[in-house]
């Protein structure tokens, strides 16, 4: 409830309103006005192209002119809206000044009342009437109320006028809800940026993106379904200009051809490496005097900065070295790269633009681009055997380190692997990449092979509405969320699962010492190998001259990881991902290892369970 005279002497309480917030809004509207003006001006500079005449040139000029006029209308709308808000802010200030006058009048009335009976009246009133001194304060009080009421009325009028101006501004033709929502968060929407960039020649594109780098950021929000036809219609010079002017955006933009993304990401990789090495050199300088005497906190900050710098360089260098294929191997393409520390990345073994069969390999806990070489080698094993066992088709395998994985418990950090926060974020990234792939290659067979916590991540992605794959393979699963308790919950034509025997780390018989611990989590307890889940379970125990899996890893020094070259596991994964799933060797539940038997007998005094 608004305060009244006599309750407070504060004009701000008598005239409510956040003037500071209004001025912040005004500032934002002025920035948006300037942005719209600048984009309109930039478009007008591209409206006429030297030495280009004819119907196509006229149509181009008309289209660019119309878009530029739309930006001018937006700028004018923001200008009027900002002015209206300024009027309201000024009206609040004026009303408060008048409220201050009203407070002064009220104080004068109080003073007259207080002094009225301190001294006897100069003329005795007797029986002729009341003492008039009791009414001396009534006049100033009445005047104060009128002053305050007038101030409030003037403010109401100003607010109503401003509201009308704002409504008129929002109603400007061409400014629909999408445009206003985009402008209020950026100054343009992705569709407008795509349209503007498509009409610019190569020289203008480079100049525009240098002058307005925020346009590249808006471009990054464009949907793959809109980007794909836009990119396809650009000429070679335009594409080259975009790749070199905005490599960080083009390199990960869904809908852009993967060869172009590779070219852009390699440019950005070199740029990042130069910056990262310079930052590392700076971080490796001896600590300053303040850091030396700053105690433990300063020492920890210094060590953290140095560790972060080293991690970034190591990740980038590992990505770079992983781009070199083995002798005679398929070319590799850097299809995703981020600026994180360490960065996220995805390397395609084979040509994603032409492949008939595409597999995304999703890693589990503790995998970062600092170990990119290891995950790429595992993916190479998969790609090589796919080529051998399915020679009639072109294959590509994506070594996808596209999310921050949880650290290995105790060894690297806490117990984040028991939760789903990392998996949820990773699922967003994987779903986005799979959706973009579907836009470019709707006819390709698409598979996902996931290991460990990667099964938690990928299973969530495969419940998203716009994601669908032909085959999904889990290896050494750390467990799926409880809401995914059936293979039918996954958007996959076929689901396959391989799981080595659950063992303790000290068991000399070998087996998977980690996966079962992840499934102890109530947040991802579902075992895809369990009866009733509905997966096509396959053996990884070794058979037909192939090696068994005796460790949780994908690659081991003994050659017994889930994706090592001569394992039964790798053979079954290849069959599952090349349309030959009927040929996988069936899973047989293992009996207890000698250590497990001994423990059981010790606990049951030899009577078994």
Automatic annotation (TrEMBL):
Domain Putative T7SS secretion signal: 4-171
Coiled coil: none
Span of domain DUF1023: 344-505
Entry-linked InterPro entries: AB_hydrolase_fold, DUF1023, T7SS_signal
Highest taxon of source: Bacteria
Protein name: Alpha/beta hydrolase
Native species: Microbacterium testaceum
